[in-house]
Amino acid sequence: MCLATAYNVKDHDSVILEYVSKIEVDGDKVILTDVLGDTKEILGTLAMADLTGGVVKISCEN
Q1: At CA 17, angle to CA 3 and CA 31, rounded to 5?
Q2: pLDDT tens figures, 12-56
Q3: φ/ψ of residue 2, rounded to 5
Q4: Is 60:10 a contact under the CB 8 Å cutoff?
Q5: What is the Cα–Cα distance from 41 to 26, expressed in whole angstroms?
Q6: Cα–Cα distance between 37 and 52 in angstroms, integer?
Q7: Computed from CA positions of residues 49, 29, 41, 58, in that sequence, does the dihedral angle turn out positive or negative?
Q8: What is the pLDDT of residue 1?
Q9: How far out from the chain centre does Cα 46 lie?
C-alpha cells in the first residue's frame, strides 16, 4: 500500500496530513483522506504528487 504525506509548499513544506490514501480535487479545494478515513479539506491547488516517494505538495490559499 502506498501512503503519502501532504505538505503545504507556501509554508516551508509544513505537514498538512500524514498517511494520505486518497486525494480528490473539487474546483479550488483539495480533499485529503488518510488511511483511517479522516478527511481534511484544503483551499488551494495540487502542486505535485510523487506517489512512489510518498510526497504530495499543495499550494494552499490560506
Answers
A1: 90
A2: 989 999 999 999 999 999 999 999 999 999 999 999 999 899 999
A3: -100, 120
A4: yes
A5: 10
A6: 21
A7: positive
A8: 65
A9: 7
